[in-house]
Design goal:
OB fold (Dihydrolipoamide Acetyltransferase, E2P); Phenylalanyl-tRNA Synthetase, Chain B, domain 1; Phenylalanyl-tRNA Synthetase, Chain B, domain 3; 847 residues; 7-stranded mixed sheet; 6 domains
Length: 847
């Protein structure tokens, strides 16, 4: 929310010398976040004044262009030029070359004199052009940074202005104002208005607040106004889609009248583009009071207005020129011709106010928040109106906002107010909230007096009554979020002052620590970081194609996944079933920024739904559900195992003198998986694997000792990498950490380190090429017996000397006894037993 300071000063006691930074510092005290400062004078400065065109001489040029050589007076006639700057004529008449043609002699314009600076650091100096010395520039709205129109220069009479020559144009156009921008959280929609922010500023500074609504006098109705019917008879989200609709009519409007400079300047500084007088008035009232409005050309309406839900198959051409197919959940504004607007989101083109409009119907309605939010997301139509409606608008301000708009249409567009008005609907009145005595002090941790509690809540606008055991609090109409005693407690703490709350660290209860799973998770994450990987956090939202590719091993199979009802993007409309899509997306982003050597990992949940998802019945509030109801709820929750994934690209280190970096390969991905298992005391069984996302010959299946496959590691599929625009030979690993943790022993017992020397033996076995190396390694481990301390594969060879269809596997064996020094014969005997078992099972022969 951007807050122009001149506007805020009308309703809050902001000191004359206060800056936008000063205002934000005060608003921070009551819980708002600073976003930024918008100050036009940071980009535009210097002598920029009102001038009048004295002469305009067209001159055709050899390039086919016609320019105007102009004389422009920039001081009142008979007055001396007060500025003594090189290039400014002391007579007060400047010679200026201008390429625009939308002005005449006698028009008053904005003149940027030598020494001025325009947005984009465009500095004005006298310069020779087209055979003349042009000492300044007649400015357009784009050059001044106040609009997009560049078809001609700004003629001040089009803004309804007739200022004295030499007037400071920056002040005239509101460019000397500034705005503070704050972040408004979803529960504080009332602060999307000058009214709401002024009230909060008064809270922060303990100063007087003037409610802009109190300055509006609503004219009494003299009869039935425009017919409006609320026909949302079957509310979808609990409350009626529209519970109040105010309609007012203004006739004799000159819709083509210009928007006053002060209004367009305030809207521009508030972040809203000036469009036309009618649109600008509706936006001005919305920003001031927080109530979105919509104007209809009353002569284009066919009969009365009906507010209802859409029927299947209905369409509407909205103001942006697009024809939209409506959903049965959409709340519509309709007349006898059908839909004329999506309530609270965007109006229809058929009833749009144009420059030819003479009678305006003003709508100020109160809509149900969820309904508006759903329609806005469904049709991808974000607007300033929907942003406010979906956060909650003050029910009680609708008639005041309508009257404010009527008054402005009468004042600025020459209209006539019709005294008959429409106000239909009835409010949903929230029940008072009981705040027990002592609850606020106990929850916040400091003592609050009765005066502080009642004073703070009264300052909010609530009705507070002292009752037995506490307070009965009726929230004001603009605070839809105050529903519980906790909400009220937070407001008391906020207004009394967060700075008074002591910073006290809680004392950990004795005898507790991390749970078994917490310990395991922390050990694995720390081990991967120590291994050289960087932990990242990716969004859990992915596409269906990504789930089908990474979430299931078999090509062509589909992975059941949870579809999001309201995704941030339709492209990423599902919850992930694999960690790898998010990791790859972050790797791609880093590659696009020049970071090619990456080792990334993430520890998080994946979502694997079963046949049962959700439940048809939701238990009521205020009572603990039965065990049976809880069981049905839990049964509908998808399986969410903790999963660890990693992606490696490029090399493990930068190149350096006397150092050749290692390129990450499939073995590193397997090592990372081994590391995850080893730090919790689990041994993985690695074998040749097949997964559609991995290279068909360079993928490993990761299994537990019982044969359960818990993950995959290796090189990603070349075709997939090409589609994803990822480097060739990118490797990855993904493992079900929950399954690994469950297989770990409750206590990891470290093996004692033997003080006796190790005996090493190597063996090279020739086996059929289809035999997995892991199977041979496990056989050697089994055959060697208890003297074997470790066995590792260190070479695979096929070629000269090895029969076709067979391969040579070389293993290093380490033997050690816990109670003696082994002799060479004992080590050789254990080695021979291992070789014999491999020969028996696989027909292995020694090379």
């Amino acid at each position: 929310m951007r807050i122009p300071l001149t506007w805020l000063r009308e309703y809050a006691q902001v000191p004359a010398g206060a800056t936008a930074e000063d205002v934000m510092n005060e608003l921070v005290k009551v819980g708002f976040e600073e976003e930024g400062v918008h100050r036009p004078l940071d980009e535009i400065s210097g002598p920029i004044v009102v001038g009048q065109v004295l002469s305009k001489e067209p001159e055709a040029q050899s390039n086919g262009k016609t320019i105007n050589w102009c004389s422009v007076r920039v001081v009142p006639e008979g007055a001396a030029q007060p500025l003594d700057i090189d290039g400014i004529d002391p007579s007060g008449v400047q010679g200026i070359v201008c390429g625009a043609h939308n002005f005449e002699v006698g028009d008053k314009v904005v003149v940027t004199l030598p020494g001025a600076v325009l947005p984009g650091d465009f500095r004005i100096t006298p310069r020779t052009t087209y055979g003349h010395v042009s000492a300044g520039m007649i400015a357009s709205v784009r050059e001044l940074g106040i609009g997009d129109d560049h078809d001609g220069i700004l003629v001040l009479s089009t803004l309804g202005l007739d200022p004295e020559l030499g007037t400071d144009a920056l002040a005239l156009l509101g460019l000397d104002d500034e705005a503070a921008e704050i972040n408004v959280t979803p529960d504080r929609g009332y602060a999307f208005s000058i009214r709401g922010v002024a009230r909060e500023y008064a809270h922060a500074t303990d100063s007087v607040f003037t409610d802009p609504a109190s300055r509006v006098t609503v004219s009494p109705s003299t009869g039935a106004g425009f017919h409006v019917s609320l026909a949302d008879e079957a509310p979808i989200y609990g409350n009626p889609g529209c519970d109040r609709f105010v309609a007012r009519t203004v006739s004799g409007v000159t819709a083509a009248a210009p928007t006053p400079a002060w209004m367009s300047a305030r809207l521009r500084l508030a972040g809203i583009r000036s469009i036309s007088l009618a649109v600008d008035i509706s936006n001005y009232v919305m920003v001031e009071l927080g109530q979105p409005l919509h104007f209809y050309d009353a002569d284009k309406l066919a009969g009365g207005i009906v507010v209802r839900r859409a029927a299947a198959g209905e369409t509407l051409e909205t103001l942006d020129g697009k024809v939209r197919t409506l959903d049965v959940e959409d709340l519509l504004i309709t007349d006898g011709s059908g839909p004329i607007g999506i309530a609270g989101v965007m109006g229809g083109a058929s009833t749009e106010v144009t420059s030819a409009t003479t009678t305006v119907l003003v709508e100020a309605a109160h809509f149900e928040e969820v309904s508006i939010a759903r329609s806005r997301r469904r049709h991808k139509l974000p607007s300033e109106a929907s942003k406010r409606f979906e956060r909650g608008v003050d029910y009680a301000v609708a008639d005041i906002a309508a009257q404010r708009a009527v008054d402005l249409l009468v004042e600025l567009a020459g209209g006539t107010e019709e005294t008959s008005s429409t106000d239909v609907g009835s409010p949903v009145v929230p029940a008072p909230v009981f705040l027990p005595s002592g609850f606020t002090s106990a929850r916040i941790g400091i003592e609050f007096t009765q005066a502080q509690i009642m004073g703070s809540l009264t300052d909010l606008g609530a009705l507070v009554e002292k009752v037995d055991g506490g307070y009965s609090v009726s929230a004001p109409s603009w605070r839809h979020d105050l529903l519980t005693k906790e909400d009220l407690t937070e407001e008391v703490a906020r207004l009394v002052g967060y700075d008074l709350i002591p910073s006290t660290l809680p004392t950990a209860p004795p005898g507790r620590g991390y749970t078994r799973v917490q310990q395991q998770r922390r050990r694995t994450v720390q081990a991967l970081a120590d291994f050289g990987l960087t932990e990242i956090l990716a969004y859990p939202f992915v596409s269906k194609a990504s789930n089908d590719t990474f979430g299931v091993a078999e090509a062509g199979a589909t992975r059941p996944a949870i579809k999001l009802a309201n995704p941030l993007s339709e492209e990423f409309g599902f919850l992930r079933t694999s960690m790898l899509p998010g990791l790859i997306e972050i790797a791609k982003r880093n590659h696009s920024r020049g970071f090619h050597d990456l080792a990334l990992f993430e520890s998080g949940l994946v979502f694997l739904p079963s046949d049962t998802l959700g439940t048809a019945s939701i238990p009521p509030l205020g009572a603990k559900p039965s065990d049976e109801v809880l069981d049905s709820l839990y049964d509908g929750i998808p399986y969410q195992p903790l999963t660890i994934g990693a992606v490696f690209t490029g090399k493990d280190s930068p190149a350096a003198p006397a150092h050749t970096p290692h390129a990450w390969d499939w073995a590193d991905a397997i090592d990372a998986a081994h590391l995850v298992a080893e730090v919790v005391g689990v041994e993985l069984v690695v074998s040749q694997g097949a997964h559609q996302a991995f290279h068909p010959g360079r993928a490993a299946a990761l299994a537990l000792r019982n044969g359960d496959v818990v993950g995959y590691a290796g090189e990603l599929h070349p075709k997939l990498l090409a589609e994803l625009n990822m480097p060739a030979r990118t490797v990855a690993m993904e493992i079900n950490a929950d399954a690994v943790f469950a297989a770990a022993a409750d206590v990891i017992v470290a093996k004692p380190i033997s003080t006796f020397p190790v005996a090493t033996q190597d063996v090279a076995l020739v086996v059929p090429e289809e035999i997995p190396a892991q199977a041979v390694l496990e056989t050697l481990r089994e055959g060697a017996g208890e003297l074997l301390e470790d066995v590792a594969l260190f070479d695979v060879y096929q070629g000269t000397g090895i029969p076709e269809g067979r391969k040579s596997l070389a293993f290093g064996l380490r033997f050690r006894a816990a109670d003696r020094t082994l002799t060479a014969d004992q080590a050789s005997a254990a080695r021979a037993s291992a070789v014999d078992l491999a020969a028996e099972r696989f027909g292995a022969t020694q090379r």
